[in-house]
Design brief:
The protein is of the alpha+beta class. Helices cover 38% and strands 27% of the residues. Bound molecules: zinc ion (2 copies).
Length: 425
């Protein structure tokens, strides 16, 4: 009795309009069950034929053919290999986007799946295996499945769904160029959803309102001093001592400048290169490091502090320093109001105790670029068999494994989030 009452209450709050029109949770569940064998087949086929970033030619062809077969307006070649499908519902309403990334990694698969990858590619001048070690094969298959489900409910759908299949999430990034190509406009997207498979328990979803994943920026500090004999240090300017002081001073950024009540951050120097023997003071030193932040303002502040410390300290010591940046993806920030509104949808699908708030994650995601333009929600879909969470291989491992029982959960989640967002008015 209690669970029925709860289900009814959630159904009326989360999807009143959609439910009234026929795109009910039961209809989505049925359509998901129908498409599941195809989702599994797509996933295995794509897993066996992985493609590196911006080379997703075969994958995007499969996606485009499927979306066309559903009667959608389809754009191909968006930002290279990206594909966009536009599904116009039978009634007017808002526009919701669902996103999947399509690229694989230069990793040689070590598992023994019957559909294991045998693909090879050149990477940094060397031949290497290619593998969907981050699970983007499942993202593509689940979003193709959600497209099938939503196309079946098309007449009942109050609004438009955009299906965004992007290239090169693992680098150099496909989200930003797809946005530049206009994927969030014509029609203008009101909200976007995306998921990532992760070694949480299968059948579980983990989310977080606000910051979820870090920004990741790399910096190089080139210090110039003045060469001299190691026995005559007063005859030059020692870039190693300057570099050592800079490394030490950088530690004060996190301890003295970052507002840790807002979000944590990391500043690491991972490389310090200078000199070649004991009695020569060189004229140059190089520091290379990484910055991880969970707040875009703090990220900018840390960047300014690193530049200030490096250049000012080197100048005071009689040398100079130049800081250059390789800026990575911004912080992945889930819109708090959208997240709060949509979590009941996930709770309804997964059942009690299976939707939980997760910790901050130090990896980065270019879904963050979409979220800088429109409210977005990104969440983790558990794919690890129960009992194996502690020992499961992480994403990017040559042993990364996805329990396919997660696939219908992902299809239903994506389809239901779209329906409930549109139906919620
Ligand atoms: Zn990855
Ligand atoms: Zn990934």
């Amino acid at each position: 009795m209690r669970s029925t009452a709860l289900a009814m209450a959630l159904l009326t709050t989360a999807s009143t309009a959609a439910a009234a029109s026929g795109a009910t949770p039961a209809a989505i569940e049925r359509a998901t069950a129908d498409v599941l064998p195809q989702v599994v087949a797509w996933r295995r086929d794509i897993h066996q034929h992985p493609e590196l970033g911006l080379q997703e030619v075969r994958t995007s062809r499969i996606v485009a053919e499927h979306l066309r077969s559903l009667g959608m307006e389809v754009q191909t070649g968006v930002a290279g290999t990206g594909v966009v499908g536009i599904l116009k519902g039978g009634r007017p309403g808002k526009v919701v986007a669902l996103r999947a990334d399509m690229d694989a990694l230069p990793v040689t698969e070590q598992g023994d799946l019957p559909f294991k990858s045998v693909q090879k590619a050149m990477w940094n001048g060397q031949e290497t295996g290619v593998m969907h070690a981050c699970g983007h094969d499942t993202h593509v298959a689940m979003l193709m499945g959600a497209a099938t489900v939503l196309a079946q409910l098309r007449a009942e759908l109050p609004g438009t769904v955009k299906f965004i299949f992007q290239p090169a999430e693992e680098g150099p990034g496909g989200a930003e160029p797809m946005i530049a190509a206009g994927v969030l406009r014509d029609p203008q997207v009101d909200a976007i959803f995306g998921l990532h498979v992760f070694p949480y328990t299968v059948g579980h979803v983990v989310y977080r309102a606000g910051p979820l994943m870090a920004s990741a920026d790399e910096f190089t500090i080139e210090i110039t001093g003045k060469q001299t004999h190691g026995a005559v240090p007063w005859g030059g300017v020692d870039p190693i001592v300057i570099g050592a002081q800079i490394v030490t001073s950088l530690q004060s950024i996190v301890s003295r400048n970052v507002n840790i009540a807002k979000a944590p951050a990391v500043v690491t120097v991972g490389k310090f290169a200078a000199g070649n023997r004991s009695n020569i003071i060189p004229d140059k030193a190089e520091l290379v490091g990484t910055v991880r932040a969970f707040d875009n303002e703090e990220r900018a502040r840390i960047r300014a502090r690193i530049e200030g410390i490096a250049t000012e300290y080197a100048r005071t010591a009689g040398g100079s320093a130049k800081v250059t940046w390789d800026l990575g993806y911004p912080v992945t920030v889930n819109d708090p109001a959208l997240t709060e509104r949509m979590v009941p949808t996930l709770q309804r699908i997964l059942g009690p105790g299976k939707v939980s708030v997760g910790p901050l994650t130090g990896t980065a995601e270019d879904f963050s670029y979409f979220q800088q333009q429109v409210p977005g929600m990104f969440f983790f879909l558990g794919v690890t068999p129960p009992g194996q969470e502690e020992t499961a291989a992480q994403n990017h491992s040559p042993l990364f494994f996805v329990d396919e029982a997660a696939l219908p959960v992902g299809v239903r989640s994506l389809a239901s989030l779209a329906v409930d967002f549109l139906g919620g008015g």
